[in-house]
Amino acid sequence: MRAEVVAVRRTARFAPLMALGALLLAPVCSPAQTVLGTQTLNLNLNGAGLIYAVPATTPLTNSGTVFSNYNGSISITYRARTTVTTGTGAITLQALSGDFTPTGGPALASGALKYTCSGATLGTNCSGTQTVSTASATNVVTLPAAVCTGGGSLCSTANPNTVTINFTLTNDPQYIAGTGYSVTLTFTISAT
Amino acid sequence: MKKTIFLTVALLLMASFAYGQSSTTGTTSLTVNVAAAAALQVNTATTSLTQGGIFSDFTGTTSLTYWVRTTPSSGSGTIVLQVTSDFSPTGGPSVASPPAGDSLTYTCTLGGVGTACSGSQTALTTGTTNVATFGANARSAKAGDSASVSWTLTNDPQYPTGSYSATATFTISAT
What we know:
The complex is a heterodimer.
Chain A: H1 2-13, H2 15-25, E1 48-53, E2 57-60, E3 70-81, E4 89-94, E5 113-118, E6 124-125, E7 130-131, E8 138-143, E9 161-169, E10 178-191
Antiparallel strand pairs in A: 1-3, 3-9, 4-8, 4-10, 5-7, 5-9, 6-8
Chain B: H1 2-18, E1 25-34, E2 37-42, E3 50-51, E4 58-69, E5 77-88, E6 104-110, E7 115-116, E8 121-122, E9 129-134, E10 145-153, E11 165-174
Antiparallel strand pairs in B: 2-4, 3-4, 4-10, 5-9, 5-11, 6-8, 6-10, 7-9
């Protein structure tokens, strides 16, 4: 009687382990599968692009010489795919919400805000120095045909892709001294 | 089978969310604080004081370019000068210890924002003297505004003949 009790206790102690073993063995013991037929999956991949990360705020500061220009830089993150042969794409920048506010300080209308692009891990950086405008979009990155994010080969090794934009704002003594001048810039990606 | 498809779709959806928010557009707000500031440039590194006639006073002009931005309402600024190195060698003209009745004086002209010093000022080694003052919200041109200081040094027969030089230091400030 005592031996039976001990055996029952041992069985109870190892019950969870036995249950786990049973679960692991279950797939092995499943019935053999039978091929019922084949199916062809067709997938049409269109050119596409997405922007993933743009800093909400980018401070521009100056240092060194008095009245030296204000500078600041940001990196934006994107993914893109363009069509073989005919595809193309771009990331552009525009001050869609208007000029700096409040008025009396820097103004895009005077061409005060310029930028350069560097380090694009997919596509080509913008050429030279660009001037930010409210009226039209200016180039940040150009995407050629047959490129894509991630995976290597024709695609980039980087995933996601990044590009750095370096801003320079003229420091004109004519600006009324004050804090909190700001302008909102919109980046747009397109790909075909 | 239906469960497998459902799980696959769910996993794909979760994978897309794992990359965070994405869109074909993104925005950033560029912000800048524009502070009061001032700078100046002395365009005449060496100003020669010359005389127009026998024992007429020595005169010469120093040209400046200045940049200034003062705060609206409460801001102000100045351009001042001080003779930081008196005439040398000794025995000739002097700013700190001139012969009685002798002096180095100047008048000011501003070509831009601000108010030029009033009348004739006597240069000092012991402190600064005014060249220009700026009120609140004073703002120069981006290329700078021009100013000049016209010097007059007494031509005292007591001065031994020779070449003498002194250094005047201009300082601009703005709040």
